[in-house]
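Long-time lurker. I teach an intro course on protein structure, and each term I like to show students one example going from raw sequence to a predicted 3D structure in token notation. This year I'd like something fresh instead of my usual example. Would anyone be willing to generate the tokens for the chain below so I can use it in lecture? Attribution to the forum is fine with me.
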Amino acid sequence: MASTTGQVRSTDDETSATGTVHDSSSRDTSASDSSPNGVSHGEPLLLDDPAPEGAAPEGLEVSGGPTIQTYDPRTGQVLAIVPDQSADEVRAAVARARAAASPWAALTYKERARHLLAVRDRLLDSAEELVEVICAETGKQRAEAVTTELMAVCETIDWYAKHGDRILRPQHVGSGTMAHKSAWKRYEPLGVVGVISPWNYPFTLSMTPVVTALFAGNTVVLKPSEVTPTVGLAIGRLFVDDTWGDLVQVVTGGGATGEALVRSGVDKVCFTGSVRTGKRVMAAAADTLTPVLLELGGKDPLIVCDDADVATAVKGAVWGSMQNSGQTCMSVERAYVHADVYDRFVSLVLAEVAAIRQDDSGSGDIGSMTFGPQVDIVEAHLADAVAKGATVLAGGVRAERPGWWFPPTVVVDVDHTMDLMTEETFGPVLPIMKVDSVDEAVRLANDSPYGLNSSVWTEDPDLGEQVANRLQAGNVCINDCIVSYAVTGLPFGGVKSSGMGRVHGAEGLREMSNVKSVLGRRVKVPRELWWFPVPKHLDRIAIATMRARFGTGIRTKLGRAGCP
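-- Reply from a regular --
Happy to contribute to a lecture. Here you go:
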């Protein structure tokens, strides 16, 4: 990365004034993009002797313009300093990606797949280093980083390499009455795709849209969250080679950088983050009618029926609410448990939660939270719930140690007057509500502006499918939770305020394409029947043709429906 100069600003300053597509609440902070002087895959300035939380390293100057700091959430210390890039630098990155777009799109699908499989090999070769970067900036445990970040991306690349050629192949369709015509549709690259990714899964939720766009023949400008920019820069380095070095540009910065990317003339914007910022991204994109793919917040319900295997449901609920310290868009954020099994469920949850290993060893069950302001939101939701009658049975108080640590927390006596049951908490909290019937559970689950993921637990397969069909969500798991995202062949996305568009599956690949309809000649005719001059009696000919083609009975086909 080119050297940079100027005053170092703290992350707190950055999150208070980052422009119209920035949101310090929930998981996205609308991170920025690449580096100055045309360098898009540089190394951040890593600090051997990090400074305390909120403090700039004494005497340190970074040349080349404004910067942002990133923190190690396990300690609260400054981890790295990266450029806060300007709109001009963003436009330059888009121009580089635009220059690479045509030759990349001209390759066959199999040629593009070979290059992306080589990228996957680079990922595998550097897996240990990538895990360290991810853990340092997110506070995850190493096993979490491997399975939910690296392995998920390898799976996505593998699936599209095997199936994408068929998905994007031109498809013939019937031409109906115009039988002398040949009709087909083809999928073509969009051009340059802008990706704005969040901090909770900075590798997976960056790489998924990036590699999907590349498979479809596009180039990409990635703006990682300013909370986790070094992960984004590591992604950029995976794509550097002598032939295709400009396919993926990475720009770093705050909300103003993200807004610049949305307004830069890219051909599509893929945004993952909060509903509030998603609306701002969509509004900014509307000025240029730039299409958007939005994966936004969730308040995902878990329903435990009276016939459920309670012990299994408990393990699923605890893992689904606490993994990644609850910072997953598909986390279990509210549980509705049938009254007949409620007491046993709560008792087993408390035992399971007490056994969770939360530490900074890298080999425990969960680590710290990633973003300081998110801990504040967790505390605010709990305070609101307690003030309205909720009871905290475990956890509930921020850990007294450096960094952003919050213990696994269990809350009962909750209802829908509380923010904890209606707003995205995004922390290691499991609120549990007693219900009298499956119908009540479904009604409460659907009583939400969100609709991302959900789960139902029952030993009756028919009941499980019935409940799944009634839930207003883009994704449902039966006797499991969260893991539907790991099945790359399944499309993933939300309904209602949880977003629009899909990643993964055939739908995800076609999201990154323009569909073009083509009509050609199957049989040569002297002239088309409808051309000028209009033939005499064309109306009668057309009526007879309609009856013969579309009539459902012989009398209609012969034009005798009105005959006695």
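Some talking points for your students: The mean pLDDT is 90. DSSP finds 18 helices and 21 strands in the chain.
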